[in-house]
Amino acid sequence: MTAFRKILIANRGEIALRVIRACRELGIASVAVYSDADRDALHVTAADEAYRIGPPPASQSYLAVDALMDAAKRAKCDAVHPGYGFLAENAGFAKRCGAEGLTFIGPSPKSIEAMGDKIAARAAAQAAGVPSVPGTSDAVTDANSVRQLGERFGYPIVVKATAGGGGRGLKVVRAPAEAAAAFELAAKEAASYFANGTVYVEKYFERPKHVEVQVLADRYGNVVHLGERDCSMQRRHQKLVEETPACIADDVRSGLLAAAVKLARSIGYDSAGTVECLVDAGRFYFLEMNTRIQVEHTVTEMTWGVDLVKAQIRIAAGERLLLQQTDLAPRGHAIECRINAESPALDFRPCAGLITRYVEPSGPGVRVDAAAYTGYVIPQEYDSLLGKLVVWGEDREDARRRMLRALREYRIEGVDTTIPFLHKLLESDEFASGNYTTPSVAAFLAAHKDELEMTPSVSEIAVAQPQEATTLSVEVNNKRFEVRVAGALRANGSSAPGARRARRFKQTKRVETDGVAVVAPMHGIVAEIRVAPGDAVQDGQVVAVIEAMKMMNEVTAHRHGTVATIEARLGQTIETGAPIVTFA
């Protein structure tokens, strides 16, 4: 048992559940936080205590540091686990935890700062003798600088947020004419997601593998690696499938592992972390370091037999690493598929809504880390990740076949998901061979788009409530309590045998059009409008940007025309099919 008595988990969804389970096994009480959109989320009921921290927007809840600190104080916590995303790599948040007498379960603020800024991280890697992707050592401030760097490094190049991650704030530039739009959108995304619009430029490799190394380090200078993961199966620079070990040459692997340990030791790292690299033409290049637990930590746990979340907690409590490198060895092969609420045939369009049926796979070698259930309403304010399906096999082919079996068993109805696409992807010769690279998903989608199974969206569904005694969630002074009520409830709140309550969802607004309007392809928030009345628009030109489930989605014109009116406004929540601009 560690020195911690109670840990607040400053996150949501499956990662919050993952941390709660680790706490329970360590004998530590867990405290969840939730926004109004997550009142019925699984992590809320799974924790020992739960506190409301604000309305649905992340900026007013999961990113609201004062609200998180207040919840931690009220619950009398002595530590905070940030999970991944949100505040997990925020040095300011880590410092605030320390100032409030709370232990931040992660690396020191110094390590976060060293690796959190991509330019500073590149400098640290170079100082440690780790090769990095060719690029700038300073921020770029305008589109003209991007064009000049394109001439220097040779196109394509990529404009990246210095504080970015997950593909946000990242835009590829293949020609000088694309520099202005790429610079503007990358900076806008960076400012929106990371409150830092600073960007820089790197050389863009066309067909690399994206390989990362898991490290663990304590406060006493002990550093070990737990192998590498191949994360090259990506859409929009965001991972879909991960596996370990990676399909790379042994000499590249040994070089990667040694470099990752060397870098972690050079910056005095002291937690779980991931060193991400690109592998191209038999060479590897440092890309960035994620100073947190990764989504895909599961595959490493399956093959190396180490609970990484427990290790994080023990290290933060001041314990030494339990194992040395000579004690560690992998066994077998593991694959993870991310199960997202998205429509792959519609360019992975996010798909919020009600899950009408949810059945997880099981059996030998199958693990599911998820926070979904039948009747769960997926909020549109957050990431589209529903859960992670992970399998282990004695070798890669055994794991691949087990994953195909598990995907067949996974049933999610009511919303579109990535499950049908993932099944086809893992059946493909390219995945089976292991010779895939970062553009492989886009190429596969283009070749098989018409074959993808589409699940119709649900606009209105009645949900039957239990007729016997039920449990209701109530809040008193923003603290959550469970109250058991005998009998079901009528719609007006009274109880009566056999009563039902119907949860009704607004019918998606559809706009009949003869081609006069450019319409919203998804529900979301209008983040940018790039045209004005009187502008001449070309077929395929970006006219607006919609933010949906933490993704910036460009909306393009379907034909040539002159803009007559702007029907949407910045910041507006817009429904699928609603007009954005009309042509004269």
Quickly list its features.
about 575 residues, alpha+beta, Rossmann fold, Dna Ligase, domain 1, D-amino Acid Aminotransferase, Chain A, domain 1, 4 domains, 8-stranded antiparallel beta sheet, 5-stranded parallel beta sheet, globular
Describe the structure.
This protein has about 575 residues and is of the alpha+beta class. The chain has 4 domains: about 5-105, Rossmann fold (3-Layer(aba) Sandwich); about 135-205, Dna Ligase, domain 1 (2-Layer Sandwich); about 210-340 and about 350-405 and about 430-445, 2-Layer Sandwich (D-amino Acid Aminotransferase, Chain A, domain 1); about 515-584, RNA polymerase II/Efflux pump adaptor protein, barrel-sandwich hybrid domain (OB fold (Dihydrolipoamide Acetyltransferase, E2P)). It is built from 15 helices and 32 strands. It has an 8-stranded antiparallel sheet, with helices on both faces. Strands 3-2-1-4-5 form a 5-stranded parallel sheet. A 4-stranded antiparallel sheet has the order 25-32-30-27, with no helix packed on it. Helix 4 packs antiparallel against helix 5 (about 110-115). It starts with 5 loop residues before the first strand and ends with a strand. About 50% of the residues are buried.
Topology:
Layout (H helix, E strand, L loop, with lengths): L5 E4 L3 H14 L2 E7 L6 H5 L2 E6 L10 H11 L3 E3 L9 H9 L3 E2 L4 H8 L1 H10 L15 H11 L3 E9 L2 E6 L5 H16 L4 E5 L5 E9 L5 E13 L2 E7 L5 H17 L5 E9 L2 E8 L6 H8 L3 H9 L16 E8 L1 E2 L5 E2 L2 E2 L2 E3 L6 E5 L6 E2 L6 E9 L2 H14 L1 E3 L5 H9 L1 H5 L6 H9 L21 E7 L2 E7 L31 E3 L4 E6 L6 E2 L4 E7 L2 E6 L4 E6 L6 E2 L4 E5 L1
Helix pairs in contact: 4-5, 5-6, 7-8, 12-13
